[in-house]
Amino acid sequence: MSLITWTPELALQHTELDDTHEEFVGLLNDFATALAGGGDPMPAFETLLAHTEAHFAMEERWMAATGFAPENCHSKQHEMVLDTLREVRRYALELKDLEPMRIIGPELAQWFPAHAEMMDAALVFHMQQVGYDSATGVLLKPEASEATATQATQGEKAITSCGSSSCGH
């Protein structure tokens, strides 16, 4: 069962992140297939959760390394998604309730393209601006990263919101 299809429109022209995103899409579909098949969906869900934890941790490391504002909507979305996935897992394991699992797949499939297009694209742009090579961890323009961090600590305009009224600068 396919909830979402990997397309070139989802690519951000950042090999490591695009590969990670494509893997996420595949694992989300694997989970949906396992759930629809009537068998035990937990192994596929656990794989999806572990991937998502590692995926978000990778992006969080990049944000920290490049001076991307520590209080930003991108990180808040990561926290909310992980909290939700962990709660879905708890419901399944402790309460033997799979209904949250039936809901989370389509919700993630709807959330992901917008997150990638807005949040992850902004992170990729920021990394390009500060000359960050995510493969090596080398920051080619540390002065640009320091300027961003200084702006954030002085309350100046920095990447701290998602562009919606629910997240502020």
Automatic annotation (TrEMBL):
Residues forming coiled coils: none
Organism domain of life: Bacteria
SUPFAM superfamilies, A to Z: Hemerythrin-like
InterPro entries: Haemerythrin_Fe_BS (IPR016131), Hemerythrin (IPR050669), Hemerythrin-like (IPR012312), Hemerythrin-like_sf (IPR035938), Hemerythrin_metal-bd (IPR012827)
Record key words, sorted: Iron, Metal-binding, Oxygen transport, Transport
Cross-referenced PROSITE patterns: HEMERYTHRINS
Pfam families: Hemerythrin
Domain Hemerythrin-like span(s) in chain numbering: 16-121
Region annotated Disordered, chain positions: 148-169
Family membership noted in the UniProt record: Belongs to the hemerythrin family.
Stated name of the protein: Hemerythrin domain-containing protein
The organism of origin for this protein: Roseateles flavus
